[in-house]
Specification:
The protein has one domain: Mog1/PsbP, alpha/beta/alpha sandwich (Protein Transport Mog1p, Chain A, 3-Layer(aba) Sandwich), CATH 3.40.1000.10. The N terminus is likely disordered. The longest helix has 17 residues. A hairpin with a 2-residue loop joins strand 4 and strand 5. The protein is 16% helix and 33% strand. The chain is of the alpha+beta class. Strands 3, 4, 5, 6, 7, 8, 9 and 10 form an 8-stranded antiparallel beta sheet that branches. A 3-stranded antiparallel beta sheet has the order 1-2-11. The radius of gyration is 16 Å and the shape is globular.
Amino acid sequence: MVPAALLATLVLAGCSSASQDAGAVAEKPGSGKPSQKTGAAGKTAVEGGTVGSRGSACPLPVTFDLAASWKPKAVHVDPDSELGAALGVQGGVTMVCEIDAKPAGNIGYLRVWQGEKPGRTPRQVLEAFIADEDSAEKVTYGETRVGDLAAAEVGYTVRSKLLDELKKQRAFAVATPDGPVVVHLGGMDSEEHEAMLPAYELAKKSLRLG
């Protein structure tokens, strides 16, 4: 499988696209806001709306708060496209939403992946997700709570072919009656990843069913 970390564009059914973190390497977004590349220690993301409810940019089995200026967009993987399935399906879950950090001054995304069938535990979902990730290293799992839900979380590194260096990744998973949900944070590099952690933690803290 082509790793999600190297995704440039998905073959889509509909009007959505899934540009990968590396697609914006040339320069910082021109939002006029300073880059938040000083790390996430002690920082709390400012809320900027929610995603997941019916009528939102990405209807999901869960809802959670977004960091200010992060922009969600639905992703529709073409089930009849071999390339789309290869890039948009990982470990039995399918990418359904990406939340772009560029308007907030960072290069990266929160991506939401959803499975169709309930039954697997959050840990099993993440283990399958990582098993389908090319070059995952330094994998560390943990049990946690996301809102009122039991969850599993994983931190790991992948090698960026663009920058030829390891970069941090992390994700958490929850089980819902409509199937598992994985929320993943990447980033152009580890520095960007660390800077975006407050947005990830906000999503984790605020996530709830429905």
